[in-house]
Specification:
With 92 residues, the protein is α+β, with helices and mostly antiparallel strands. The chain contains one helix and six strands; from the N terminus they run αββββββ. The N and C termini lie far apart (42 Å). The model has no long low-confidence stretch (mean pLDDT 75).
Length: 92
């Protein structure tokens, strides 16, 4: 299993590099119902019909919002500065 784990890590790192810090993961067998053999009751679960989106920076991959770097003052109860807010959208 360690070899499989290393292949997955390498593939994700490559995808993040090619995708400029963003990657979408599409589960195998999307939309299908699968039967678990882990229990005697054979509970069912469904594979989601959507992609899991990930980003390597301060960015929400689902709603495409970029966040500014948090500052220590944002975590202080004694500070009057506002918490970290989304950065202004850059022109694409």
């Amino acid at each position: 299993m360690p070899a499989e784990r290393e292949r997955v890590i390498e593939a994700l790192e490559s995808a993040l590099r090619v995708g400029q810090g963003r990657v979408n993961i599409y589960p195998e067998n999307q939309g299908q119902t699968t039967f678990s053999e882990a229990t005697a009751q054979e509970k069912t679960w469904s594979v989601p019909d959507f992609a899991w989106r990930y980003s390597s920076d301060l960015h929400c991959a689902d709603c495409d919002i970029h966040y500014s770097e948090p500052t220590p003052a944002a975590f202080s109860f004694n500070s009057r500065s506002a918490p970290a807010r989304p950065a202004a959208a850059s022109a694409a």
